[in-house]
Design brief:
The structure holds two protein chains of two kinds. Chain A has twelve helices and eight strands. By secondary structure, chain A is α/β, with parallel strands linked by helices. In chain B, strands 5-7-9-11-14-15 form a six-stranded mixed sheet, with helices on one face. A five-stranded mixed sheet of chain B has the order 6-8-10-12-13, with no helix packed on it. Chain B has a four-stranded mixed sheet with strand order 1-2-3-4.
Chain lengths: ~270, ~240
């Protein structure tokens, strides 16, 4: 029986879809069978960042309303040796088109076939959020170091703590090293302490994420990229490994600066 | 036969004492006969004074009666029966039924309202935590979070949200906290906005409503002087 993980945030635009695609892909690359579920009904995006959008025939609402069987709606990503599948969202439906009980039934079916079912939750705390969390065993909370994202994250944590869902575990995304080093945003410890949750991982801001996503390629496919490394580390931690956190690299201090005074330390 | 009801005069009227262990039927019987006896005695007295014209007015005067039930809690039906007998057989007007016991439910309620509850939690954004008495919070109130207590609030942690003490209107309630961060303190119906302190001072203050009905802040050392009665049971039950 597989595990269902919901990727949520509260705030929009912090990287839930990107993280779902990349963490899911990274776990699949580790040999696990993964199904990604796009719960952003009405606006679907997960298929786009995976490069699978032109292969959609049936979606989750077709399944729920009986027009298609579950296996007919699942799209296999051919790049990953049968390890990665996607259940796309519908564009011409609303979040109210599906309810918690239906989600639970659907995800239970998926858990019988897959090691990991990763649910991409839409922004907000309304029906989309309720549906996405209804069937989850554990939660991953994505935030950025911006105060608005952190505020929403706190709200979400409060809601999840009252549910029968493990976690949430925190991923701090889109970290701009310079801003953090210069104290212009809360640093990793401050954010983690303020939200009082376990830290799952950090991802540094990187243009490559946008470039590859535009091409329909998850950035984890590039092993040298720093954001890719962050996602791969997260995947390994989910699979039970202990992986040290990536550090905000210290800026190189020149010889003369060493003598006459140091630059601000991380 | 043992007497289970007795009448005696008190400062504000009369007291009807009912034995707690007595059977209710017996109480009703004895009460009726007692009141009839008193009535007859009064009628005989009036006959002697020959004040027949004023008798009607005199009869309308109701005398206050306090019913003491001791260690018995009377049901509403029982109270109604006693009330109707007293009304129809006498000039007494029942003011209250008083017992020396309360239900366990009421006792727990009283305990809750008068005790200091310990909460080891963080109040997160969007959450509202409601408490019936005083509360000691060991945890934070995050921005967007609200802690409401009918009594006083004591915070060991960060106050960044809203702490509302005395929210049922008690102006004696206070909030003790380290007011370093931007937050809001509310006392009864007063609201006070706090800005983030430039230099964190890490020192506890008490927010209270003073005689001029304003929100005031003083070092927590002065708490005893400001609210000497804080925490004492005030017998709010009865």
């Amino acid at each position: 029986m597989g595990k269902a993980i919901v990727v949520t945030s509260g705030k929009g635009g912090v990287g839930k879809t990107t993280s779902t695609a990349n963490i899911g892909t990274a776990i699949a690359l580790q040999g696990q069978k993964v199904c990604l579920v796009d719960m952003d009904i009405g606006l679907r995006n997960l298929d786009v960042v995976l490069g699978l959008e032109n292969r959609i025939i049936y979606d989750i609402i077709d399944v729920v309303e009986g027009r298609a069987k579950l296996h007919q709606a699942l799209i296999k990503d051919k790049r990953f040796n049968d390890q990665l599948y996607l259940l796309p969202a519908a564009q011409n439906a609303e979040k109210e088109a599906i309810h918690e009980e239906q989600m639970i039934e659907l995800v239970t079916q998926l858990k019988e076939e897959f090691d990991y079912v990763i649910i991409d939750c839409p922004a907000g705390i309304e029906q989309g959020f309720k549906n996405s969390t209804a069937a989850a065993d554990e939660a991953i909370l994505i935030t950025t170091p911006e105060i608005s994202a952190i505020r929403d994250a706190d709200r979400i944590i409060g809601l999840i703590e009252k549910m029968d869902v493990d976690g949430p575990r925190l991923v701090i995304n889109r970290i701009r090293k310079k801003m953090m080093q210069e104290g212009e945003v809360m640093d990793i410890d401050e954010i983690t302490r303020h939200l009082s949750v376990d830290l799952l991982g950090i991802i540094f801001e990187d243009d490559q994420v946008v470039r590859s996503s535009n091409k329909g390629n998850p950035v984890v496919l590039d092993p040298d990229n720093v954001a890719s490394q962050g996602y791969r580390n997260i995947a390994r931690r989910i699979l039970g490994e202990t992986v040290p956190l990536m550090t905000l690299k210290e800026e190189k201090v020149s010889f003369w600066q060493k003598i006459f005074g140091r630059k601000k330390k991380v | 036969m043992k007497q289970v009801v007795s009448l005696r005069g008190v400062k504000d009227g009369y007291q009807l004492r009912i034995e707690a262990e007595a059977a209710f039927k017996e109480i009703l019987e004895q009460l009726e006969s007692l009141l009839k006896k008193i009535n007859n005695e009064q009628k005989n007295e009036k006959k002697d004074t020959e004040d027949t014209e004023d008798t009607k007015d005199a009869n309308e005067e109701r005398i206050p009666l306090f019913v003491e039930t001791g260690n018995r809690l009377m049901t509403e039906k029982e109270k109604e029966k006693i009330t109707s007998i007293v009304k129809s057989h006498s000039q007494f007007d029942i003011q209250s039924f008083n017992a020396e016991v309360v239900t366990i439910e009421k006792a727990y309620d009283w305990h809750e309202k008068n005790s200091l509850q310990l909460k080891m939690d963080t109040v997160r954004s969007g959450q509202v935590m409601d408490l019936p008495g005083d509360v000691l919070l060991i945890g934070n109130i995050n921005p967007g979070g609200v802690l409401r207590a009918a009594g006083s609030i004591f915070i060991i942690g960060e106050l960044r949200g809203i702490a509302h003490a005395g929210f049922e209107g008690d102006e004696e309630a206070v909030v003790v906290a380290d007011y370093q961060h931007a937050s809001q303190v509310r006392l009864a119906d007063q609201v006070h906005v706090l800005e983030e302190k430039e230099t964190p001072t890490a020192n506890y203050e008490v927010a209270y409503i003073n005689e001029s009905k304003n929100v005031n802040f003083e070092p927590v050392d002065n708490l005893k002087k400001i609210r000497p009665a804080l925490g004492e049971l005030t017998g709010r039950l009865l």
